[in-house]
Amino acid sequence: MSSVYDRTDIYDLFDSPKKDAQTRAHWQAVFDGRPIRSALDVSIGTGSLTLPLADLGVSLYGSDLSGSMLARCRKKADERGIAIDLRQSDFRELTSHFDRRFDCVMSTGNSLAYVTNDEITGVLEQMDALVESGGYLCNWDRIVRQKKRFYCYNPAFLPNGDRVNLMQVWDHLSDGSIVFNLLYTFERDNKIFQKEHFEEHYHPVPQKLLLDKLAQLGYEDIEVKAFPVQFGAFDPEKTEWYCVLAHKAK
């Protein structure tokens, strides 16, 4: 089964100016009052969750395991006139690809779940090694409270009027991991003319594992916020996505 990360033409179909503005407003709220001038996203993908930071005057850097995702991110950055330094890297090997530190090192989009829980602490150590003294480490994750099977997105509409539908079907495995089946259908004149199916394997990250490791690394003022922040306060019973922001002691 192919990965959606090999199909950037499909991956970005649900991007929109509204989503872009929402992401920018989130970062503005999270970074408010904090001296963050440079940021590295170690799972930048096509840049949808990171490029809006350029509007806040932040110098951008990014890495990703997928060369095709990075190529798409570069194209989007060039189209917007955004300067960005991109490297192809596994986030378990960051220090082999970057030799400087940043005001904020982040992993966006539930990406830590691509490695097993046993590997999470090593990834956080790699990220921490690139955070400036007094800087910040940020991560986004999805909360999995129950064994949900189906997740439907609002449809997207292409410039020619074609409708794109996306449904996720989650297969919960005995080891606690999840196979996400991403099912895309394309409609024209009320008829489906194209179908695409992708699979991704996730290992849900326990929030306690993340917070305990950040505390062990010496981070202070560890905050858990809803994503997007402007949607309200973090509520463990209602929030689907959350982000963690932690301050590295000087």
Please provide a written account of the structure.
This protein is of the alpha/beta class. It has 5 helices and 12 strands. It has helices spanning 8-11, 17-31, 67-80, 117-128, 207-216; strands spanning 38-41, 59-64, 84-88, 102-107, 131-142, 150-152, 156-157, 163-172, 178-188, 191-202, 219-226, 241-248. The strands form 2 sheets. The protein has a 7-stranded mixed beta sheet, with helices on both faces. Strands 6, 7, 8, 9 and 10 form a 5-stranded antiparallel beta sheet that branches. α4 packs parallel to α5 (207-216).
Number of helices: 5
* Structural classification: alpha/beta
Q: Compute the CA-based radius of gyration.
A: 18 Å
Output the strand order for the largest sheet: 3-2-1-4-5-12-11
Q: Mind describing the biggest β-sheet?
A: 7 strands, mixed
Q: Which geometry do the CA atoms define?
A: globular
Separation of the first and last Cα atoms: 46 Å
| SSE string, helices as H and strands as E | HHEEHEEHEEEEEEHEE
Mean pLDDT: 93
